[in-house]
Sequence to fold (557 residues):
Amino acid sequence: MTNPSVIGRLDIEKIRTLFPVLHQQVNGKPLIYLDNAATTQKPISVLKALGHYYQSDNANIHRAAHTLAARATEYYEASRHTVKEFIHASEVEECIFTKGTTEGINLVAQSWGRSKLKVGDEVLISGMEHHSNIVPWQLISEEKGATLRVIPMNEAGELVMDEFEKLLSPKTKMVAVVYASNALGTINPVKEIIAKSHAAGAKVLIDGAQATSHIPIDVQDLGCDFFVFSAHKVYGPTGVGVLYGKRELLQQMPPYQGGGEMIKEVTFEQSTWNELPYKFEAGTPNIADVIAFKYALEFVNETGKEKIAAHEKELLLAFTDGLTKFGHTIQLIGTAANKVSVQSFLIKGQHPFDTGMLMDAKGIAVRTGHHCTQPLMKRFGVEGTVRASFAVYNTLDEVKVLLEAVHGLTKQVNK
Amino acid sequence: MKSIIEAQDEIIADFSLFEGDMESTLFYLMELGHKLPAMDESHKTEEYLVKGCQSKVWLYPQVQNGKVHFEADSNTEITKGLISLLITVWNQRTPDDILNSDLYFIEKIGMSRMIGSQRSNGFASMIKQMKYYALAFKAKQL
Fold:
């Protein structure tokens, strides 16, 4: 991690002025929003872009000859260009707009999986996957007679790389792993996973949903075959995601959904498919949100991912150190050495739902439950956790209030 | 014994003391949960789990001398407090009393604001299940 004093500190108070939603009271207390791994708040530039689009530019893209349609198309494609730069893809055609990470994974599972998987093949996932990177692979594996295998974790919530290597074999056709765990925060060594998987002849999909707002993404440097993420976890609107795929693979893959936009020519006998990326964008897309997404990525670029990551790391360390001081009253879940700004924990003797509601009464928004990672919860022998996740607009003062709240609850439980 | 109306009015009066302060309300609910008589562990089975709740809620009904007696437990303290409110109002009533009563206290104490829509659905499931048991006992009596 880069030292914050070297790269210069962010003016967090100034950043907070860009996020109108943060400035409100919840249950009579100033809102402290710490559910950023579920969704981040949106800067004013994104909100303005959404309003502006519907007020001034609304038209369907790619098809009409009129001015509004041309403008909408231009802005939509400009967003794609910004996405391409943001993840350092080599071509814009490799960046497909989806509804979100879940749709991106389903697209690959249904299109690539259906055309490539055969009886006896294996799909390798990890023990810390979100349900959205488990279930699509279960569905297609069952359909094609393939087997799903799982890379185990150690007690800290890190992948056991020796076991991963043992699981890799000529049967492995796809390795689909999460870059950063939503429940634990663990950053996985994806570059190493990709290299080793490729050496074994497998393709690799990286679920970047939790990583993309925290870690600089370079899909060419990573070498992954597919990379998926959601806009709404990177300060952008909901209902938009990106699937990056290597051109060669995307070209071989059959369409995922049929409809308008994705065709070249349709007769009742047969249809031919449009070029990339449109082949995978059937129907009228979420134009307004895609256009507004550009402003979210620009916010991240202008703020600087390194600075964001350094600030978030400072918040995470302050929180985790604080929790550790409460000793045995707290159970930490997810203690990997390399993490994004996510910390799951339990107050011993208190159900996470109760903790969540008592936190909400203090205006603190944290996530409680299984975080759509039931197998992971089972691995740690818990039903669910309380999760605090930090974004660039959170402050050390907020961490202090959170720690005081946790401390108060531990005393209440042990009274 | 208090009537269903008196029991509800007492709950409304108790909750009004908190003047809408969420934290003290939740702590009070947890306290009520603590006071709920312990449930016979052998009754905590899949059969008596209330469906539609986020947390686990067990509800075991019995009928004694024509009156319904509920035992309940939950794995979360706040939910246990919520079910204790229903038990306060409905325990030792006839099936008809339960089926014909209007639980106006829920709205009066601002329950939905307090527990949110997801838990409100769970709470509605508990009410539905209790009424269902009352109906089943009534059918048996006829």
User: Anything to note?
Assistant: The first strand of chain A starts at residue 25 and ends at 26. The mean pLDDT of chain A is 95. The interface with chain B takes residues 27-28, 350-351, 353-354, 357-358, 360-362, 369, 383, 412 of chain A (CB under 8 Å).
